[in-house]
Write a structure and sequence with these properties.
282 residues; 2-enoyl-CoA Hydratase, Chain A, domain 1; seven-stranded mixed beta sheet; four-stranded mixed beta sheet; 11 helices; 11 strands; 51% helix; globular; binds ligand LOHRUJSQ; fatty acid metabolism; transit peptide; isomerase
Length: 282
């Protein structure tokens, strides 16, 4: 066996230090590999990592903590071996309490900015379905490794949702415009082969630990760069993508809330939620 392969296998076996995220919740878990300094951030909200207000706040706090503690990189993954994330928790959008909806949407915008602009190298080990905002979490990262047998994409138009600009941008930041446009208009969920073909993902892995090793290898590719120069260059490269959300977060929030509160949106959501529940009872 090659020395480099042995080294990578050691990486997979290495003991990690759990650093938690200060708020005592287990909705996300952070472990830092003592030898590589890379943090693994695990989504841990059963049953399917749907992003409710608490998960979004927790995730944002964990991203910030990983930056604060000087980790060399961030690998985002899931504790569920079938679902990376099922996207937004639809119960947050259905007949919402308005104060909670405001807090929820703000938390979503803030978390996305933190992940998209994170100063450390980021990679997603996608060990299950990554649906809608689940896909957005993965595309906010710099690199994606996925396991076969799962779907990834944004299928919002299939159930009557118009996606807000930052969700559109997260797709456009990894896909050529014509592919992103077609996929969004079709509400397409990509199989692994399709995702690899259009570069929605970068690599395929044959298990979660293999995915984490591949993500760590990608993060290791920045070892010889100067962290501040890398972070600022990333920020500059992504500056245009975040302009709207940084300049006018409250305007973006208002537009989304207006849309979510329309009878059209609420009726469509009611039908979709009922279908989801009946499917899970089958
Ligand atoms: C400005 C307007 C903005 C509009 C939003 C625009 C963009 C939209 C972004 C989003 O992210 S919306 C969310 C879209 N996500 C989905 O549609 C995913 C739906 N879920 C599934 O397809 C499946 O659950 C799964 C992820 C493939 C997993 O399948 P599995 O068979 O393992 O689990 P289930 O039995 O289906 O689910 C278990 C349990 O969880 C509930 N659930 C699943 N996903 C969600 C969700 N996103 N929100 C809330 N609840 C969810 C499901 O109903 C089951 O509940 P119980 O019946 O067991 O109570």
């Amino acid at each position: 066996m090659l020395r480099s392969q042995t080294k990578l296998m050691d990486l997979g076996r290495r003991l990690c230090r759990s650093i938690g995220n200060n708020n005592g919740s287990n909705l996300t878990m952070v472990e830092v590999d003592d030898k590589t300094g890379i943090a693994t951030l695990t989504l841990n909200k059963p049953p399917v990592n749907s992003c409710n207000l608490e998960l979004l706040l927790d995730l944002n706090e964990s991203i910030k903590q990983i930056e604060r503690n000087g980790s060399r990189g961030l690998i985002l993954t899931s504790s569920n071996d079938k679902v990376f994330s099922s996207g937004l928790d639809l119960n947050e959008l259905h007949q919402p309490n308005q104060d909670r909806l405001i807090a929820f949407w703000r938390a979503l915008q803030d978390m996305w900015l933190s992940l998209f602009l994170s100063r450390v190298p980021t990679a997603a080990a996608i060990n299950g379905h990554a649906i809608a905002v689940g896909c957005v979490l993965a595309t906010a990262c710099e690199y994606r490794v996925m396991l076969p047998g799962f779907s990834i994409g944004i299928h919002a138009t299939k159930f009557g949702y118009v996606v807000p600009p930052f969700i559109l941008i997260s797709y456009l930041s990894v896909l050529p415009r014509y592919i992103a446009e077609r996929a969004l208009l079709q509400g397409k969920l990509f199989s692994i082969d399709e995702a690899l073909h259009v570069n929605l993902i970068d690599e395929v892995a044959d298990g979660k630990s293999d995915a984490i090793i591949k993500c760590a290898k990608f993060i290791g590719s920045f070892a010889k760069t100067q962290p501040d120069a890398r972070a600022l260059t990333k920020r500059q490269t992504r500056a245009q993508d975040v302009q709207l959300l940084i300049k006018d977060p409250e305007g973006q929030l208002r537009e989304s809330l207006e849309y979510i509160n329309t009878p059209f949106f609420q009726q469509g959501l009611e039908v979709y939620l009922a279908k989801l529940k009946s499917k899970s009872k089958e």
